[in-house]
């Protein structure tokens, strides 16, 4: 072993040792400064606290009111759907009432024609009687439909137009009679 030459390996080892010492000096400079570490740590803590405050503000000022608004919106939409369904029902029943009024007007005209025909001595009244019975059956059907309507609907939408129509018929009857 004494005959071997280790000078080249020794030179490499010494160069590696010098590089390791330089690296150790650099790394040692980073960890020793505790004041800089504390400053950075306190700034990070302050940023964390501000972010938590911002998050809480967002919850209180934005998210809660939005959730409440969404709940109110759902309730309003439900109410709107209910009103729309009620409006459709009222419209359907109003159309039925218009049909009843039309049938009533037809029946009144037929009765008037019948009365005039009797007054003028027309012998064949069977056609008029048939039309009157058909109109009367249609009227009875409509009256059955009206009987099934709610009191509130009748008070609001049926009785006032019927009164107006009845007044108009009474006026017409008085004009014809007199």
Please explain how this structure is put together.
- By secondary structure, the protein is mainly alpha-helical.
- The chain has one domain.
- It is built from 4 helices and no strands.
- The chain has helices spanning 7-32, 34-119, 126-147, 151-177.
- The longest helix has 86 residues, at 34-119.
N- to C-terminal distance: 155 Å
Give the overall shape.
rod-shaped
Largest sheet: none
- Mean pLDDT equals 78
Low-confidence stretches: none
Using the CA coordinates, give the radius of gyration.
50 Å
The helix/strand class is mainly alpha
What's the tally of helices?
Answer: 4
Brief description of this entry?
The protein has helices at about 5-30, 35-120, 125-145, 150-175.
């Amino acid at each position: 072993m004494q005959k071997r030459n280790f000078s080249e390996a020794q030179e490499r080892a010494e160069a590696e040792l010098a590089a390791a010492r330089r690296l150790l000096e650099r790394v040692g400079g980073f960890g020793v400064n505790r004041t800089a570490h504390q400053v950075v740590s306190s700034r990070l803590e302050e940023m964390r606290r501000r972010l938590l405050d911002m998050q809480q503000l967002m919850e209180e000022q934005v998210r809660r009111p939005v959730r409440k608004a969404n709940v109110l919106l759902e309730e309003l939409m439900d109410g709107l759907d209910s009103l729309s369904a009620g409006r459709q029902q009222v419209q359907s029943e109003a159309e039925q009432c218009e049909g009843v009024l039309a049938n009533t007007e037809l029946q009144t005209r037929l009765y008037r024609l019948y009365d005039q025909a009797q007054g003028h001595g027309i012998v064949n009244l069977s056609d008029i009687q048939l039309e009157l019975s058909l109109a009367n059956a249609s009227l009875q059907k409509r009256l059955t439909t009206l009987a099934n309507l709610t009191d509130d609907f009748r008070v609001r939408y049926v009785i006032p137009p019927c009164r107006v129509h009845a007044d108009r018929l009474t006026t017409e009857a008085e004009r014809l009679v007199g």
